[in-house]
Amino acid sequence: MSLTVDGTVRRGDFELAVSITAKPGEVLAVLGPNGAGKSTLLRIVAGLLALDEGTAVLGPLVLDDVKHNVFVDPQHRNVGVVFQDHRLFPHLRVLDNVAFGPRSRGVHKASARVAARDWLDRLAIGELSRRYPRELSGGQAQRVALARALACDPAALLLDEPLAALDVQTRAEVQGELREHLGAFAGPTLLVTHDPIEALLLAQRIVVLERGRVVQEGSPAEITSRPLTPYVARLVGMNLYSGVSANHVVALDGGGSLVTADAADGQVLVALRPSAFTIHVGQPPRSSARNIWRARVASLAPLGDRIRITAEGDQVATADVTASAVAELDLAPGREVWLAAKATDVIAYPGPVSPAVGPDERAVPQAGTLESMPVSVTVRYWAGAQRAAGVEQETVVAGTVGELRAVLAGRGELVKISQVASFLVDGQQAGDTTALYEDAEVDVLPPFAGG
Amino acid sequence: MSRSRARARRKAGLGTPAVIVPPALIGVAFLLLPTIALLVRTPWGDLGRIYRHQQVWTAVRISVESSLEATAASLVLGVPLAWMLARLRVPGMGLARAIVTIPLVLPPVIGGVALFSALGRHGLLGKPIDGLLGHPLPFTYPAIVVAQTFVAMPFLVITVEGAFRTADRGVEEAAATLGASRGRIFSRVTLPLILPSIVAGSVLCWARALGEFGATLLFGGNTPGRTQTLPTAVLTVFNDNPADAPALSLPLMMIALVVLGVMRDKWIRPVAAS
Lengths: 451, 274
What we know:
The structure holds 2 protein chains of 2 kinds. By secondary structure, chain A is α+β, with helices and mostly antiparallel strands. Chain A has helices spanning 38-46, 94-104, 109-122, 138-150, 168-184, 196-202, 220-225, 230-236, 323-329, 359-362, 386-389, 401-410, 431-439; strands spanning 3-11, 14-22, 27-31, 53-58, 61-65, 70-71, 79-82, 156-160, 189-193, 205-210, 213-218, 239-246, 249-252, 257-259, 266-272, 278-280, 291-303, 306-312, 316-322, 336-341, 347-350, 374-381, 393-400, 414-423. Chain A is built from 13 helices and 24 strands. Chain B is mostly helical. Chain B has a single domain (56-266), classed as MetI-like (MetI-like fold). In chain B, 76% of the residues lie in helices and 0% in strands. Chain B has helices at 2-11, 21-41, 47-52, 54-87, 93-100, 102-105, 108-119, 126-133, 141-166, 169-177, 182-211, 214-220, 230-240, 245-266. In chain B, α4 packs parallel to α9 (141-166), α9 (141-166) crosses α11 and α9 crosses α12 (214-220).
């Protein structure tokens, strides 16, 4: 049973026009900045908002079809929604909150409560059943909200920023559990989020929404390696330029050029990891690198065990080097340098029909790719029979986001992740990058913390 | 310690300015003195004689019964009305809200005249009501309830309307996605959420109905044993035997105090956001 929305909604000046499909068992993340229309899309599927044009279909059931005057009320859609602010009924105990759905569908009170208790036990929160929502922590409330949505045996699941209201520690815990439960859910799941890490960890496919339009769609790997807009590039931490390519040479909009091994011709986007640049001082380097730019260092900032350099020449570029390289080359703001990059590290691919990269937005410095972002997380889990015995195992993942994803994927029995020590992000960089991670409530380490 | 802290606060310029103290004290005295005077002037020795009088207890009974019935009528009509005022998005709703509050600002005596014009023997609806009841409405027990409802219901409506307006729509949406029908959302989610406001509105409404005098006297009359309530009985006694009037005021005052005491902590306070 898959979920398809192909339609348009208008609210004053804002217009959301999308075409998306989530397959059975798939978690589709809808990623975008505030005001992009993510929640609007979710409300359309839930039946809380009617389309102005087009259709919404869930399996065999047409939810909304403007042309044929079909609109199914939210009551009859069988779609489970987990709201950002959980929206539990404050006057009902946890058990009755979870039993509310089955009761509304005509299940007898006693059987509805049995079903509710079963779901609470499955989510390992059975001991909360007699509490009122005001007696729950944020993480507990979000778990109860998930149990309440699942207790209706929904055909599709909608999650609206399920982790945004939680503190860093709780986020990591709930995120791990959510991954487990979403994996067990047979229907399509729509996960609305503005946090790329949440999308990368929980979703198999990502749709990026900007100003009411889908600007990119693909697997996490595709999104992170070939961003199509400055927003996506900023999210995944890539240098992104636009230009016209001919015979492996891309003439960049705004000046300068890049040699690429990719063969795409015509209007292209060019993405480059900050770690792909090497930095040289003095004479132009004699190197196998096909791309050598003259630039002036604009700023330096620590990023984990590396230093993030922002340099300005024909284009603005960010490059990651080691602290010892900074010392050896005596890099400081104003220093003239050469940036070198191998043609094989320059990824060129057809861009959107109209160039999406504006000159002002191109200047935003980028972090390393999100997949390579350093991370240190303690993962706690029970394996097999240990779960019943309550024996916890613990493993520390100190590596990258990509490695963490691999570890999480391999833990069928994963119960919770705790202690997100840090996603190391440059605290001094241009507002955009920092603000992005403040949004995501990820710890931002002060410069040079921990040496 | 606390003394020095108080002095420190005064020094910091955060204490009570001297100029507002005398009017505040006069205000307290002004509000308290009549109540105290009532207690002082109550003929405590004669209470037995006065209360043994059959007429008093009948008036108490009629007062309590009619005010409770008026409150019930206000709930039945007022809660749905409040919902419509709060939730319906149609032009003219502002006007409707203003009309509802007319009895709040109208002198109750004028309210009585208005009821006559509408429901009296020669009123706009006089004929059909005559036919329905077999007799004219004014100066009957139902007329008392009608008069009290007219004056008291707006208190309930505006209290409950505010609650409907500020009630969390998000929770209602959540209930809809869980499959709850409109009726179930209203009865199982919205009403329980605003229950404190309904109780508070009902208490206000009932207290207003219990003390209602002007419209009741004009539209219901003051016939001992049939339409005489405690407030209108006080008028009769005050006319005939002024010294006994404070004694009759005591039951109303006691009821008011008990209601205040019991309800204050439990219901009449802003509902804490959960």
